[in-house]
Amino acid sequence: MNLQDTPAADVQGLLAQMGQRARAASALMARSGAAARNQALRALARLLRENVAALQTANAPEIERARAAGLAAPMVDRLKLTPAILETCAQGCEQLAAMPDVIGDIVGLKQQPSGIRVGQMRVPIGVFGMIYESRPNVTIEAASLSIKSGNACILRGGSEAIESNHALAALVRQALAEAGLPEDAVQLVPTTDRAAVSALITVPQYVDVIIPRGGKGLIERVSAEARVPVIKHLDGNCHTYVDDPCDLDMALKVVDNAKTQKYSPCNATESLLVARGVAGTFLPRIGAIFAAKGVQMRCDAECARILKENVAPAQEGRAQAAINSVADIVPAQEQDWYEEYLAPVISIKVVEGVDEAIVHINRYSSHHTDAILTRDHMHAQRFLREVDSASVMVNASTRFADGFEYGLGAEIGISTDKFHARGPVGIEGLTSLKWVVLGEGEVRGG
Description:
The chain has helices at 8-30, 34-50, 52-68, 73-79, 83-98, 137-148, 162-178, 195-200, 216-225, 248-260, 276-292, 301-308, 354-364, 377-386, and strands spanning 106-111, 117-124, 127-132, 152-156, 186-188, 209-213, 238-242, 269-275, 296-299, 329-331, 345-351, 369-373, 391-394, 414-415, 423-424, 431-438. Residues 1-5 and 314-320 have low confidence and may be disordered.
């Protein structure tokens, strides 16, 4: 069904039809065998590799339109379907296919005094709706996880990647058909009309959970208007804290990667905290790296003083590992501690030690991903226990907060909520547990 030219007044009814088909498909997916679902995933991996050129042809005009519209470079980057990105998608499908099937597992089975045995069985959620912007590879991540977890899904991508999403969704449906599974287990909303979002998030009779993935505005709107549960995160204000004591060579490598390896993802470090005991040594070194890469540093007063004392004078023979200009250093405002920049900008603050770092993070963090770089085991353990975030790391880049890197095969998104799905949401995040009771004729007494 093509909704592209459908009047807004009719979108609600048409989304209801998609919901009905998704509900019917979810029943078939729930009783499908693991072999068929894995076959579909392997077929999808093959189709992605066979259609790299065609997918890039669909994607190229979208990239050009984004650039012509003056979209920021990190946003343009999110739109790209490069061979490397498509290969990662294909590998994700294969990784999922190789993983054990969790559907139907019974956990915690215990014998009760009455004679019954009580446990919990893992089952698919049913139908989830996914609303996302920019990244067309999310179409494959969502579809592959939906297939592996025995669910059905309705996907609504952004207007900026509509052609790429159509091309990818067609391959998904082809893979489902090859495996003998219902094509309607994965449906893409073909219209970019905003009314489709409202329609999708207000049909609890067809959709069991909504997962928005995009800018803060989208997620706030979905959270406010949805009549079904929402799995979400609003911001990716991730922190890296350089502790005292710390291996500063390691810290340079990790902080550089966490901030500059890629600016656009939600797991890039946006705020750097440095213990006072190592700040005088570490800040000039990391400042030189940031300055060389054009990263603006928004600093508290102590950090700014240390960095400005190490600005390289314009003289021949001076070591290159120095900050080039005070223009790289900007006074931080209160809002900077909250900010998700998604750009070559980072906030930096000097803290007394691990206690102040934890307090700062729990106040300003978006509870996505936060890391400590340290040689002190007790500091690491305290950080892990006390930092209230979905992912907490020791001596590793925040860029690892990703379903593929966590071994989930792919991720449907990252949740900063505290119910059953938290952090990268993979197969288990798209399932539910229901109680099962096994008996042999027991009856309950008075």
